[in-house]
Amino acid sequence: MKKIGIADTTFARFDMGKSAIDELKSNHTGFKIIRYTVPGVKDLPVACKKLFEEQNCDIAMALGMPGSKPIDKQCAHEASTGIIQVQILCNKHILEVFVHEDEGKDEKELFWLADQRSREHAINCLDLLFNPENLTREAGKGLREGFEDAGPLRM
Amino acid sequence: MKKIGIADTTFARFDMGKSAIDELKSNHTGFKIIRYTVPGVKDLPVACKKLFEEQNCDIAMALGMPGSKPIDKQCAHEASTGIIQVQILCNKHILEVFVHEDEGKDEKELFWLADQRSREHAINCLDLLFNPENLTREAGKGLREGFEDAGPLRM
Amino acid sequence: MKKIGIADTTFARFDMGKSAIDELKSNHTGFKIIRYTVPGVKDLPVACKKLFEEQNCDIAMALGMPGSKPIDKQCAHEASTGIIQVQILCNKHILEVFVHEDEGKDEKELFWLADQRSREHAINCLDLLFNPENLTREAGKGLREGFEDAGPLRM
Amino acid sequence: MKKIGIADTTFARFDMGKSAIDELKSNHTGFKIIRYTVPGVKDLPVACKKLFEEQNCDIAMALGMPGSKPIDKQCAHEASTGIIQVQILCNKHILEVFVHEDEGKDEKELFWLADQRSREHAINCLDLLFNPENLTREAGKGLREGFEDAGPLRM
Amino acid sequence: MKKIGIADTTFARFDMGKSAIDELKSNHTGFKIIRYTVPGVKDLPVACKKLFEEQNCDIAMALGMPGSKPIDKQCAHEASTGIIQVQILCNKHILEVFVHEDEGKDEKELFWLADQRSREHAINCLDLLFNPENLTREAGKGLREGFEDAGPLRM
After folding, report:
1. A155: confidence class by pLDDT, cuts 50, 70, 90
2. Model pTM greater than 0.95?
3. Which end of chain B is more exposed for a tag (fewer CB within 10 A), N or C?
4. What's residue D155's pLDDT?
5. Which secondary structure element, helix H or strand E, spans residue E63, and what is its range?
6. For residue C155, what pLDDT is reported?
7. Could you give the 3-state DSSP secondary structure of residue A11?
8. How far apart are CA D152 and CA D150, in angstroms?
9. CA-based nearest distance B35→chain A, Å
10. Backbone angles phi, psi at B94, to 5 degrees
C-alpha cells in the first residue's frame, strides 16, 4: 500500500495538514497517511527526509505558512531549497504548499487560501502518485493552486 | 536508442512541451521521448532526476513559465539551482527553458516567445546529444533562444 | 541514553546555550548534553555535523545571534542553508535558534528575547525527541518562539 | 600528459575559449586541451563535470559572458554556485572566467576585456596545474584579471 | 602532528596568510602549516577540500578580501556557501576570514583590519584544534574578530 507523508508546522496559523488529509481521503483510497508536525518551515526538509527514509513514504506534502517580513521570506527560501534537495536525493516528490501571510488581503482570505491551496495540492499529490497522465493532460493550461487559474495564453 | 526526457508544468500558460517535442521530431530521428508533467517549476528538478534514473533518459528539457511577482522569481531561482544539481549528480544535460511572464510586452508576444524558445532549445538539445561540434562552431557568437541573437561584439 | 548537542557561538551577545541547557534540564531527564562552542554562526553547520557523527547526538540546537548589517544577514542565510544540509545528510533535527540583533527595540528586549527563544526552542527540542505528538496537537496554531504567539487565523 | 578542459558558450559575444586556448598554448607545452561548448553559463557546471569524469581533465576553465539584466545576474549566480559544487565533488579546480556585459563602457572595451581576462586566467590555470608556487609568491598582491591590478594596500 | 591548511588569494590586497601564519607560530607549537594560494575567493572552497583530502590537514583557514561592488558581494556569498559545504563534507572546520574592501574607512584602516582579523581568527583556529574549552568559556560574550568586541548585552 502507498504511503503519503504530511509534514506541517506549529508556526502556521491554519491547520493545513488537516485540510490536505481531508481532501486526500475524500478523493482516493488505498493509501496510508503518516503525519509529522515540526515547529517551522525550515524543519520541513528533514521532516520529509525522515518520512521518506524512516517511514517509507512514497510522496510527501510539506505545508507551511511563512510570515510577511523579509526574514520570513528568507526562511521560506531556505526551506524550499532544502525541500528540493530532499526530493533530488530520494527521487520522490514533495508537494510544497506554502501560503505567505501577505498573500491574502485579510485574515479571512488567508484562511480560505490556506484551506483551498492545501486541498488543490492534495489532488496534485494523488495525481503524481496514482494518475500522472492527469497532469500531462493539463500541461500548459496555466493552472494555479488556491487563487483562480491564470489559464492558457491567448494568441 | 537515445531517450530524451521532456519535463513540463501545468502552471505554464503555454504547452511548451508540445512545441519542444514537435521541433525535436521535425529535426532528427532515432530517439524516444518520455514526457513527464508536474505542477510547477519547483517540481522540475526531481522530475528530471526521475527521468534520468528511472526512465534512463540521456538528456532532458525542463520547460516552465515562472510568474512575474518577486515570489515567482524566487521559485524560478530555486528550481534552477535544483536543475543544476541534478545535472551535476547525473552527469547529464538538462536544457532549462524558462519563459518569465514579464518577458513579453503582451500575451501575444509571450505566446510567440514560449513557442520559439522551446523550439530553439530543442535544437540545442539535439546538438548536445548528437552533434556537439555544431555548438563549438557557434562558440562566442552571441546566440539567444527566443528573441533575436545579440551577435558577436564588434571591436 | 539520548544525547542532545548544543552548538553556540562566542559572537552572540547572550549565553543562549546556557538558557537552552537550563530549560532542557528543568523539563526532562534521561538525556546527556554535549556542548560545543564555535566563533560564529557560519561555524555552526559543521559543529552540528560533528556533534551528530563524532559525538553521536540524536538532535541538536544551533544557537546564534547574527548582527544587523546586510553582511550579517547574508552570513545568517549561509549558516541556515548549511544547517538544513546537515539535517538532510544526517536525518536528524537541528533546532535553529537565531536572534537577529535588530529584532529587539533595545538591549534589554534583546536580552529577554535571546533567553526566551532559547528556552521555547528547548521545549521544541524535547518534544521532537521524546513527545512528537505534542507538536501535532499544536499544528496550525500560529505558535512563535520568543515573542507572543500569532495564534490561529480567524475566519 | 595533463589535460585541460575548456568549457564555453554560444551565448557569449566573444570567443573566449579561443583566447584561452591561444594563451595556454603560447605559454606552456605538455598538455592536451579538450574543448566543450554549451548554450549558456548554466550549462557550464555539468560541462565541467563531464570534462573531469568522462574526459579525465585535470583542471578546467569555464568561460561565459552573462548579460546585464537582473535575470542574467541570477543565472550567473546559479552557474557559479554549480561550478563551485563541481570543484568540491571532484577535488579539481575550475577557473571561472565570467565577463558581465555591463563591465565594459562600450562593445570595444568589452571585446578587449573578454580577451584579456580569458588570457590572464589561462595563466592562472597553468600556474595551478604546473607552478602553484607562482601564485603563493603573489599572495595578497591585489591582482586582477582583465582590468589593471588593484595592487597591495598602502599602510 | 596536526596540520593546519592556509588557503589565501592573489586577489587580496594584503598578505593575510602571512599574518595568520605568524600568529599561529607565535602562539603554539606542534603543528605543521600547508599554504595554498589561489586566484580569488571562489577558488577557496576547493583549495580547502584539497588541503583536507590531499594534504590531510586537520583544520583550515580561508583568507580573502572581496571587493566592494555588488558582484564582489555575490562572489563572497558563493565562496562562503562552498566553504560551508566543504566543512560539512569533511567534518572539519574552516575559519573563514573575509575582509570586505568597504569595511575600512580608508586603506590604512583596511590594512590594519586585514592583519588583525587574520590574527584573531588564527587564535580561534588554535582553540578549535587544541583548546575548544577556551571557546566555551567565551560563549555569548559578543566577541568580534578585527574591530573591538561588541560585548555581552546589558540587561
Report:
1. confident
2. yes
3. N
4. 80
5. strand E59-64
6. 81
7. coil
8. 7
9. 8
10. -125, 120
Q: Residue D4 — φ and ψ, nearest 5°?
A: -110, 125
Distances in Å between the Cα of B82 and the Cα atoms of B62, B64, C132 are 11, 14, 31
CA distance A92 to chain B (A): 7
Residues whose CB falls within 8 Å of the CB of residue D22, separated by 6 or more in sequence, listed in order: D119
Whether residue C11 and residue E92 make contact (CB cut-off 8 A), yes or no, is no
C84–A82 CB contact, under 8 Å = yes
Q: What is the mean pLDDT of residues D60-66?
A: 98
User: Max CA-CA distance within chain E?
Assistant: 49
Alpha-carbon span C33 to C63, nearest angstrom = 14
Q: What's the CA gap between C3 and C57, in Å, rounded?
A: 5
Q: How far is C39 from chain E (nearest CA, A)?
A: 7
Tell me the chain E residues in contact with residue C85 when contact means C-beta distances shorter than 8 Å: 84-85, 88
Nearest-angstrom CA–CA distance, A81 and A75 = 10
Tell me what ipTM this predicted complex has: 0.97
Instruction: Please state the φ and ψ torsions of residue D36, each to the nearest 5 degrees.
Output: -145, 110
Phi and psi angles of residue C45, each rounded to the nearest 5 degrees, phi first: -60, -50
Beta-carbon contacts of residue C142 (< 8 Å; ≥ 6 apart): A11, A12, A13, C149, C150, C151, C152, C153
- Ordered DSSP codes for C135-152: HHHTTTS---SSSPP--P
Q: Which residue of B has its CA nearest to A88?
A: B46
Cell numbers that stand for B87 in this block:
545535472
Tell me which chain A residues have a C-beta less than 8 angstroms from the C-beta of C152.
13-15
Q: What is the largest CA-CA distance in chain D?
A: 49
Cell of A155: 494568441
Q: Do D121 and E39 touch (CB under 8 A)?
A: yes
Kindly state the helix (H) or strand (E) to which residue E8 belongs, with its residue range: strand E2-9
Q: What is the pLDDT of residues D85-133, one digit of tens each?
A: 999 999 999 999 999 999 999 999 999 999 999 999 999 999 999 999 9
Q: Which residue has the cell 543565472?
A: D75
Nearest CB partner across the interface for D17, out of B81, B128, B140: B140
Taking each helix axis as running N to C, give the angle between helix A44-53 and helix C70-90, from 0 to 180 degrees, rounded to the nearest 10: 10
Residue written as grid cell 588593484: D150
Q: How many CA atoms lie within 13 A of D108 on its CB side?
A: 0
Which DSSP string corresponds to C36-102? EEESSGGGHHHHHHHHHHTS--SEEEEEE---SSHHHHHHHHHHHHHHHHHHHHHT--EEEEE--GG
Write out pLDDT tens, residues B13-44: 999 999 999 999 999 999 999 999 999 999 99
**Nearest CB partner across the interface for C136, out of A37, A89, A110:** A37
Chains that touch E (3 or more CB pairs under 8 A): C, D
Which residues of chain A lie closer than 8 angstroms to B51, CB-CB? Answer: none
Please give the interface size between A and C, counted as residue pairs whose CB atoms are below 8 Å apart. 107
Contacts of C among chains (3+ CB pairs under 8 A): A, E
Q: What angle do CA C97, C101, C103 make, to 5 degrees?
A: 80
User: Residue B151 — φ and ψ, nearest 5°?
Assistant: 80, 165
Contact D124, D93 (CB under 8 A): no
**DSSP letters for E14-41:** S-HHHHHHHHHHHH--SEEEEEEEESSG
Q: Which amino acid is at E138?
A: E
Give me the sign of the Cα torsion angle A21, A24, A29, A32. negative
- Chain D residue with CA closest to B134: the answer is D37
